[in-house]
What does this fold into?
Amino acid sequence: MSGENFRRAAAVSAQAAVLIVTLGCEAGPTPTAPTGAQETITVPPQETSTVPSPAPGPVGGRITVTINGEARPGVYVELRRFGGQWGLGTTIPSGSWELETVPFGDYDVVIKTPPGLTCDATRKSVTVGPGQPMLVDFACFGDVKGSIVGFASAEFGTVASARISLTGPVNRETLSNRDGFFAFENLPPGEYLLRWCKDPVRASARDGATVFATVDCS
It folds into this structure.
């Protein structure tokens, strides 16, 4: 290498060394955020109520409807409130009808009896409140003797105008009334079959007696 070239190489090396030192000084250490004491937030404890919850009270009363002290099945019963129907049923099979958890208030109990049965009233008022169950009794007399009576019923209640046939010692046919009630009166004693829309129902007619039967289509 000639002397001139050697001097040029040495000058370039010196300039590079100065540039490296300068860049290192400018970069410096990476700044970090100052650290300080962390603030602690204290949540006050929740207050607990010491007032006791009220004990659950009765949600309603009970109404029992009887005919001659539970002596007569087959009477249609309707519970009415504010002029509309609230509940319904029949005095089947024990001769009484019972409805529990009836809201407190004033009601009318309406009954519809089979032909030949006369009662002291067909509507009685009752007030349901906490305490003793309410008993509504209707005094009735007379009856249809030697007969088979009952109701035509389906999934959603009694059925009006159901055509029911009776076969046995005598053969007859009838339609249920608007309440679903039907009656075959003055029958000779013996075994009978009642048919409507499903399997027949067996019933026995006896002298001086009224037999109750239900034909069901549900």
In short: Residues 16-27 have pLDDT under 50 and may be disordered. The longest strand covers residues 105-112. The CA atoms of residues 8 and 14 lie 10 Å apart.
